[in-house]
Write a structure and sequence with these properties.
Number of helices: 13
Shape: globular
Number of domains: 2
Strand content: under 5%
Structural class: mainly alpha
Order of helices and strands: HHHHHHHHHHHHH
Radius of gyration: 21 Å
CATH topology of the largest domain: Butyryl-CoA Dehydrogenase, subunit A, domain 3
CATH class of the largest domain: Mainly Alpha
CATH architecture of the largest domain: Up-down Bundle
Number of strands: 0
Distance between the termini: 70 Å
Amino acid sequence: MDKKPLEKYTNELKHSQDSLMLQYMPALRAIAFRLKERLPSSIDINDLISIGTEEMIKLARRYDSSINDSFWGYAKTRVYGSMLDYLRELDIVSRSSRKLIKLIDKEVSKYFNEYEEEPSDEYLANILGEDIKKIKEARIASDIYSLIPIDEQYNAIGGDNIIEKLQKDELVDIIKDVLSTLSKREQTIIQLYYFEELSLNEISNILNITSSRISQIHKEVIKKIRSRVGNING
């Protein structure tokens, strides 16, 4: 049996899959940079891109255009999910740091509400009587877990399995309720970021607010949701 036609077909298929993956690399990089905007400097953007690329290669190999007419529509959520999985696997929230994270979040919220900016690590170390290295590590952990779905970040920081105690529909209702209490500026930022999918820099240009302030407001919204979930969970 002549294997050349089969080899030719296999090579053409692989080339087609590789071309498909390369076509959407700019979109993948955009996701990685958008995610990196809200991460500490210790997280390398190249690691996020590498993880996403590995996932997209796998997806391109499995993609069937007869089932999904849009490759990026099929791949986008999975690529983003692979980056979040990488952040989860860093496992930087130890049991000993959960209490410190909660204390830091409380102090940051108090300071932010008064001065509309986040306090320095030195300020928090002084207020909480903690080593500055521990403060920095705990803030990195808190920043990373603010990106994880709310049920998972609460499990990681709170140490409880909230899904067993709180139905997902109820969780969605809580999130909607919190969002309804936000100021007009906060609602606009959430709308532009999550629904219009604009970057922090793009939102900054529209609202004439610095990117760092927008990032702080976003984290405050996440903290409000976490607090409400924690209160309901007891």
